[in-house]
Amino acid sequence: MYAGAVTASVVLHGSPLIVTVRPTAAKTPERRSSPASITPISIDSGRLPSSTGHLGLDGRPSHRPDVTGARVVVSGGRGLKTTEDFERLVGGWLTGSMGRPAVPVHWSTPA
Prior knowledge:
This protein is largely without helices or strands. It has one helix at residues 83-93, and strands at 73-74, 97-98. The protein has a domain at 64-111.
């Protein structure tokens, strides 16, 4: 965690559990030859249970374009450092919609 500056032991509860690991977090194991056979099978995907579904879309009115329909989307990131720098980039030069990373640092409100 934190570019290797912190090590954490974490206990996860619930389901599903999702864990991600950086590709460089461990050494690559030595490659070994292990022949295996592949057996194709056919599956009727219509009979598989589905755990996902589209419930609907709840659009909110906004004076800005929706990110999915915006002509320009700016991903300024925290590298701009200040609200003023971000506003100068977005408000002064472009007409676009601000993405989600601008919200946690209070540069924008959720669209």
